[in-house]
Amino acid sequence: MLQTVFSPLDTSDPFADMRRMQSAMSRLFGGGAALGPSATYPAVNFWADQDRIVMTTELPGLTEKDIELTVKDTVLTIRGEYPQVKSGDDVIWHRRERPEGTFLRSVELPFRVNSEHIDARFENGVLSVEMQRPEDDKPKRIKIKAA
Q1: Residues 85-136: pLDDT tens digits?
Q2: Average pLDDT over the chain, rounded to whole?
Q3: CA–CA separation, 97 and 94 (whole Å)
Q4: DSSP string across 58-105
Q5: For the domain bounded by 42-137, which CATH number is listed?
Q6: In DSSP terms, which residues pair with 131 in a beta bridge?
Q7: What does the domain layout of the chain look like in residue ranges?
Q8: What residues contact 128, with CB distance under 8 A and at least 6 apart?
Q9: Closest CA to 70 of 24, 123, 106
C-alpha cells in the first residue's frame, strides 16, 4: 500500500514530499535492483510513532567498531566494512554469497530527529537505533473555538 503524506503548509523542506514519493516508487517498481546488491544492503526495518523512529538491521560478523552511523536532516546513513576473506591462489570458490568489502546505505526518515537524543545499540549482530523527534517538530493539536 502506498501511503502519501502531504503537508502543503510545511515550508521547511519543499522537496521532502518528492523524495518520499520517489522512494516509494522505487520500492514499488524495484528501482534499487539496477544499482546492485549494495544499494539495498543492509536490509533495514523501520517503525515510527509521533515521538520516535526505531530502526533495526542485521550486520553479522561485525562489531560496533566496524560500523559508522550518521544522521543529517532527515537522512540516516549506515556505513561499514566487512573484512576481505583471505585465500590462496590455488583456491577455487564454488559459491561466495557472504558480503565483503565496504557498504553504504542511506535511508530517508519520515521526519527530522533530534541528533542529541539518538540511542544506538549493537548486540548479537543486530544494530538497533532509536531516534527521538524534536519537541518543536511534533504535531500540535489546535483547539477550535465555537464562533
Answers
A1: 777 788 888 888 888 889 999 999 988 898 889 999 999 999 999 999 888 8
A2: 82
A3: 10
A4: E-TT--GGGEEEEEETTEEEEEEEEPPPP--TT---S---S--EEEEE
A5: 2.60.40.790
A6: 53, 118
A7: 1-35, 42-137
A8: 54, 55, 56, 120, 121, 122
A9: 106
Helix, strand, or coil (residue 121): strand
The model's pLDDT over 67-94, given as tens digits with 9 standing for 90+, comes to 999 999 899 999 999 888 777 788 888 8
Closest C-alpha among 106, 117, 113, 126 to residue 49: 113
pTM: 0.65
Taking a C-beta distance cutoff of 8 angstroms, is the pair 43, 57 a contact?
A: yes
HSE of 78, CA atoms in CB hemisphere, 13 A: 27
Q: Which of 132, 131, 140 has the alpha carbon at shortest distance from 44? A: 131
pLDDT at 38: 47
Q: What DSSP designation does 9 have?
A: T
- Per residue in 27-42, pLDDT tens? 777 654 444 444 578 9
Joined together, the cell numbers standing for residue 66 give 566496524
